[in-house]
Amino acid sequence: MTVWVIFICSILLFLALDLGIFNKTPHVISTKEASFWTLIWVSIALCFSFVVFLIFKNNWVANPTQLTPLDAALKYVTGYLIELSLSIDNIFVIAVIFSSFKIPQKYQHRVLFWGIIGAIVFRALMIFFGVALFERFSWITYVFGVFLIFTAIKLLISKESKEYNPKKSFIYKTVRKIIPITTTVDNEYFFVRKKHLLVATPLFLVLILVEFTDILFAFDSIPAILAITTNPFIVFSSNILAILGLRSMYFFLSNMTSKFYFIKYSLVAILTFVGVKLLLAHHYKFPEWFSLSFIFVALAIGIVVSVKSKVKA
CA 218, CA 127: separation in Å to the nearest integer? Predict the structure, then answer.
C-alpha cells in the first residue's frame, strides 16, 4: 500500500508542478518545447522500469503470479510501449477536435491537463474491473482476444477518406442540450458569466469530448495491457506514465500526422499480436523478451518507414 501511495502522490506532484509552475501562463507550445518534454516523460517512464524491478525484488507490492523482478520490469516496459503506441491514434483524433472547435493553441494544454486528470480516474476504474474480470473468469481472455483482432481488422480496412466530425457526435449534441455554451473562446476558463448566467465555453465542451475519446481508446489499450500482465501496479503505472507524456507528445505529433501514415500498420500488427496472445493464453506463454521485442520492432518499423516514405495520409 505504501508504494501505491508514494506513486500516486508523485503523479499528483508532477501535475501540480506542470500547471502551477511550468505552464502557469497559457502560451503556444513550440515543437522544441514539446520535444524536450516528450523526451523527459519518455525517459522518466523508461527509467521507472528499474523502480519496478526494485519493487518486485523487495516484494513491496502484491505479486500473486510470482513474477520475477526482471519479468515485472519487462512487462512494465511492454505495457508502456503498447499504451504509447495506441495513444498515437488518440492524439490525431484530439487534434481534429481542437481544430474543429478552433481552440487557440495557447489554451490546448489546459484542456489536455484536466483531460488527463479525468483519464487517470477512468483508467483506474477500468483497470480495477478489468483485472477482476481476468482473475475471476478465465474464458474472458478469448473474448478480449477476439475483440482486439476484430479491432485490428477494422483499423486495417478503414477508409482514410472518412473524416471524424466531433460536431456530429452524440456527446456534442447531448451536452449542447443540457448546458448553454458560448460560441467564442476569449480566455482559458471553462465557464464564464453572461448576463448573470453561468455558461460553458467551447473549452469545456472540448474537454468532455477529449475525455470521451480517451474512454473509447481505453477499451482497446486496457485489454491489450491485460494480455501482458494482470498485476494491478504494473498495468496502472504503465498506463498513467504513458498518459502523462501524452500532452507533450500531442504538441510534438499533432502537426505531423501525414508523416506517420504507416504507424497505422504498426498498430494493426500490435493489436493482432496481443489478440493472438490472449487467445493462446491458456495454452502457450510467449517469452517476455519476445513480446517486448515484437512491439518495439513493429513500432520502430512504422516510424522509420513513415519518415522515409513520401506517401501522405
Answer: 10
pLDDT of residue 170: 80
| Rounded CA separation 200/185 (Å) | 10
Convert the pLDDT of each residue in 51-84 to its tens digit: 999 999 999 999 988 899 999 999 999 999 998 8
Using CA atoms, how far residue 290 sits from 41, 278, 293, 296, 301, in Å, is: 25, 15, 5, 10, 16
> How far, in Å, CA of 33 to CA of 165, rounded?
29
- The 8 Å CB, 24+ separation contacts for 195-204 are 200/175, 202/101, 202/102, 202/103, 203/103, 203/107, 203/110, 203/111, 204/179
Assigned C-alpha cell, 50: 528499474
Q: Is pLDDT larger for residue 294 or for residue 173?
A: 294
Helices (H) and strands (E) in the chain, counts: 11, 2
Q: Point out the least confidently predicted range of 27-36, 76-85, 147-156.
A: 27-36
- Coil, helix or strand for 193? strand
CB atoms within 10 A of CB 163: 8
Supply the pLDDT for residue 237: 94
The Cα 152–Cα 84 span in angstroms is 16
What Rg do the C-alpha atoms of the chain give, in angstroms? Answer: 20
Q: How far apart are CA 254 and CA 65, in angstroms?
A: 40
The residue behind cell 510467449 is 286
Contact status, residue 199 vs residue 181, Cβ threshold 8 Å: yes
The average pLDDT across 253-280 equals 81
Backbone phi, psi, residue 53, to 5°: -55, -50
Cβ–Cβ under 8 Å, residues 203 and 108: no
For the chain, what is the mean pLDDT?
85
pTM: 0.85
